[in-house]
Write the structure tokens for this entry.
Amino acid sequence: MKMKTVNCETISIPEGERLMLTLGNSVHGNGFWKGDIYGVALYGGELDPETIAGRFRDWSQDRALSFSGDSRPLMAFSFNEGKGTETKDAAGGVQKLGIPSRFVVPEKQYLSLRWGDFKADRSFLFDIIINFLGFIPLGFVICALFSQFGGILQKRAVLFSVLFCFLTSLGIEVSQAWIPSRSSQAMDLALNTTGAFIGAKITKLKYLTGLKG
């Protein structure tokens, strides 16, 4: 049996500020969820559970937004057509809702460090390991390349390798702020740089051992 759910949220609208309501993702682009949005209705007050259940039953039967009684929404929009770039207000208003062809992150965050992202689960730990181990080979290769040159590049091969990998990781993290479902994290930058340092040190030790041999 396929279960159906309905989401009802209370939204506090501040006065004198620019308003934005994003469905299906956070305004920062990193809080996405999988699913389909068939409609949205905004009311001026809180609905009682019986009204919510009745509206959901009506929607489940004919996939249309219908309103009865005094609890008419301020505006309501249905997304059941599956095409087009705008939808009309089903509550009878003149307001139209534009539907972008693709989601663009409205409020980008660069190199954020939020303690709420730290979770002791497999996915989070796997992400830490990948970010750390992924840059060890890069640091190893770049340091080996710099060690072949003379002068300051050879003497400071580890430093220049770490700097190169830091800038590479920085570019990746900054670009991820523009990609929905991705996030620009300072912790990822730190893990990438640490992994690059380990890789560079391994190369330097092998290079010095080879010279002594």
Summary: The longest strand covers residues 39-42. Residues 150 and 157 are 10 Å apart (CA to CA). The chain is about 40% helix and 5% strand. The helical segments are 49-62, 122-133, 136-147, 151-155, 157-176, 186-212.
